[in-house]
Design brief:
Largest interface: A-B, 55 and 55 residues
Helix content of chain A: 40-55%
Shape of chain A: elongated
Strand order of the largest sheet of chain A: 2-1-3-4-5-11
Number of helices of chain A: 13
Order of helices and strands of chain A: HHHHEHEHEHEEHEHEHEHEHEHEE
Number of strands of chain A: 12
Oligomer: homodimer
Largest sheet of chain A: 6 strands, parallel
Chain lengths: ~350, ~350
DNA sequence: CCACGTACGGACAACGTTCTCTACACTGGT
DNA sequence: ACCAGTGTAGAGAACGTTGTCCGTACGTGG
């Protein structure tokens, strides 16, 4: 006979009390305790009171793991994000958390620092936890391997009744069971670029990430299309495409550009954080914003309002993104088809791009 | 006989494959599959390969819940925070997450918006999940009820081998099994206030939260002690104590003060976010920083460097706070005594408080 | 050729719940 | 007085793992 693993000896009193302890103390059966806790079956008032007292006394809490195994659902969702410290992602995380909590779900988090290997590992962990849905928040490097991997994951999750949810990434193609909630990178960048051109800017320095990154791809494409539509040829030498989205990278890249001949009148920064660095670089070069150089950003994080001059940027409804994602994923109808939702974005005008350019 | 709940009928193919499916496909017993997965027992190469192929084919992942029930540990930690959107908390969260991941633990999150009821509910949820430790991040409203509640929770968690960890809150008193990792609010505020007084400021407007909130209590007490030590009586009418820590509240409170007679030369904002609002208020009143009004903040979040002029503030090692908390809690020795750790803080000087005051 | 160690694999209890089935004591209608 | 119905409680299988115990096949040394 297999021996009881948790001998009373090896860990005296150092264990959580179980439903059995409660039943014994209250002098009832396991079933009765279970019913008092679940409240899904009539229990006589006197019995109920006795059980409740025992629960109180023993400080009993049900064991989720046993509950799930015994036929319940885990009521857990997982989300995976590059870095929780980014203001935009934090807002999306907040939306997911709030909406999940409203539905009685608890959240698992993992961060990846953009590493696909860690992303994969995190997803695996959440599959093990039987999360009801897995949210991937933020852009990704798009290529064939990525798509194959995601399609695979989407199908695995779907097969077990869970759901892959892409927040802020494009869909994977037809027939893949995935929920996608995007915001309009292309459209927002189009509007923002039009705004700049409308203010007379023709030579705009674009400071962004790598074009294989989906977010960059979308914003850059909106930029190009607007420039094209408005008759301003894009000078490829004014595309400053790097690999990261930090303030420091914005500062350095704009500083370097400013050291040579200044051949642009505006900066389109791909994120507000980069814009913050860009603005500091302009000031440190002894120039002013928007008089010498106009600057616009993207995301409309709180920082945008704190910069001086206030940053003209594109508002992205990150919190709503998170909420919408949870709603779609958790309340989705029985059908297993793909879902796609695109959230709008709009330009928020502040002072950082206010004056007419000298054409 | 109890019927199998998940009839093949009601959910065709919509279920995760189990170890049993793998065993059948590979033609081995459950034990063998378990051993291949765990890798803690010799399995012949040929058998191992067959099992691995079956796992691959069925896309099998172990069920955490069953694993935990079958004697394993959940390898889960939970953390609870007022709001993930705060930059400072986000950093602490990041520290916890990174350090927990390094130890193979996955994180559960919950947010409370500062509501003690929701905090309690979240803790309960994490007890149900059998989290190895529960981290409470950020200050709290301190009173007798709070202390009793926390002591109770600490003991409950301790009784089941888990641990309550307070990050950025004071200890609960002797004999309570709790891990505390604090940063020095009192000391940081003392140093910052000394800095201001050293620059000639005598009349300093303190803009902060409610003194029953532990963070406010600490910072305000450091402020008072420094003023006292340096021979500057604290004018109670210059204590602007409100209930929240938003940018808007900083803006409004300082704006209102500026509308009357300006009877202060510096603003001590209890957080950088409040300082951001305060700075905007000063500018909007047509005054300049630091020439007319010096401003200092607290926390040294990224915003502090983006403000213009750069914000003089107190650096708090939030990420390290999170890391230290995980280390203490997860690697703690067998003894169940309380642990206490205080992280230092230091003043970071930027331009927002640079000129000599007109005495 | 036999005893014996070694490498491997299977059977089965246990983990803490939930759910279904069954049992029992009343009640009230006939 | 009997039976159906109702309100309440218990017994026990099942959930998907892990760990322990126990076989069996295959060498290998005496």
């Amino acid at each position: 006979m297999a021996k009881r693993r948790n001998d009373a000896l090896d860990d005296p009193e150092h264990r959580q009390s179980t439903i059995k302890d409660v039943a014994e103390l209250a002098g009832v059966s396991l079933s009765t305790v279970s019913r008092v806790v679940a409240g899904n079956y009539p229990v006589a008032q006197a019995t109920r009171t006795r059980v409740e007292r025992a629960i109180e006394e023993l400080n009993y809490v049900a064991n989720t793991h046993a509950r799930v195994l015994g036929g319940g659902s885990a009521r857990t969702v997982g989300f995976i994000v590059n870095d929780v410290r980014g203001a935009a992602f934090a807002e999306a995380v907040h939306g997911v958390e709030q909406e999940a909590a409203r539905r009685g779900h608890i959240c698992l988090v993992a961060t990846t620092d953009g590493d696909p290997v860690r992303e994969l590992a995190a997803i695996q962990l959440m599959r093990e936890q039987r999360a009801a849905a897995v949210f991937l928040i933020g852009g990704a490097t798009d290529n064939a391997a990525y798509r194959a991997r995601m399609a695979d994951i989407a199908r695995s999750l779907d097969a077990s009744g869970s759901r892959l949810v892409l927040c802020g990434r494009p869909p994977l193609g037809d027939g893949i069971p995935v929920t996608v909630v995007e915001y309009d990178n292309e459209g927002g960048a189009y509007a923002l670029t039009s705004f700049l051109v409308g203010r007379g800017h023709r030579r705009i320095l674009y400071v962004g990430g790598d074009p294989t990154f989906t977010t960059t791809a979308g914003r850059l494409s909106g930029f190009r299309r607007a420039m094209g539509d408005l008759g301003c040829p894009v000078d490829e030498s004014l595309l400053e495409l790097g690999t990261d989205f930090t303030r420091a990278s914005g500062y350095e890249r704009v500083s370097a550009r400013l050291r040579g001949e200044r051949d642009f009148t505006a900066v389109f920064a791909e994120t507000d954080v980069i814009a913050g660095g860009a603005m500091a670089a302009v000031f440190d070069a002894g120039l002013s914003v928007p008089e010498d150089v106009s600057i616009v950003g993207y995301d409309d994080i709180p920082l945008a309002a704190d910069l001086r001059p206030g940053l003209t940027t594109v508002h992205v409804p990150y919190e709503e993104l998170g909420r919408a994602a949870v709603r779609s994923a958790l309340d989705r109808p029985a059908g297993r088809a793909e879902q796609h939702q695109m959230l709008g974005a709009h330009v928020v005008i502040r002072r950082s791009a206010e004056r007419q350019s000298p054409a």
